[in-house]
What does this fold into?
Amino acid sequence: MSWLSSVLARLTGRDELPDGFGARLEADERVLAVGEMAGGGHMVVTSWGVWLPGSEPRRVGWHLISKATWKDGTIVLVEAEESGDAGGAVLIIDRPARRLRLAEPGRVPQVVHERVTGSIRSRHHRDLPGGGAWFLQRKVPGRDGIVLQVRADPGTDEAVVRQVATDVSRKLAR
It folds into this structure.
């Protein structure tokens, strides 16, 4: 990053992509923070999500991060995976937590926290046979509107979750 680019980034509150970043951002996707990984590479945080480091960086949209915590130089991300549809509601399941150690976190922890919580418009838990489910209304980066996501607790009857998710989705669409 040149001296001028660095100054402009600080003045606008936006960072630039690190040298050698191997992915292409969307036209309206802005870089909000960059953290240097312990062991090489970068975590890039944008207006659309978190770019996970690797030989082929992969973006996880804000609406698909179920949980993000920061402690002792490590950010722990729980990514959700879309597992189906129920009457317009998106069924999601959580992947195993991923731990990423940052040597130089910069503003990454703060921005990740703000964006994950900011993507949630509402949430509530409903008890169901065998467990329950979380119902979340979330903003999807790059799209207008809100999506209803449903994450079932372990052991909850999947057919019941689908039926309740369909009913809730229809009520919200009215």
User: Anything to note?
Assistant: The helical segments are 3-12, 108-119, 158-173.
